Amino acid sequence: MEASSCSKAEPFALQVLGDSMHPEFMDGVVIVVDPEGVVRDGCYVVAVDTKEEYTFRQYRHHDEKHFLVPLNDLYDTEEFKGPSHVKGVVIQQAGKRRKDRKFY
Question: Which domains does the chain have, with CATH numbers?
Answer without folding.
Answer: 12-103 (2.10.109.10)
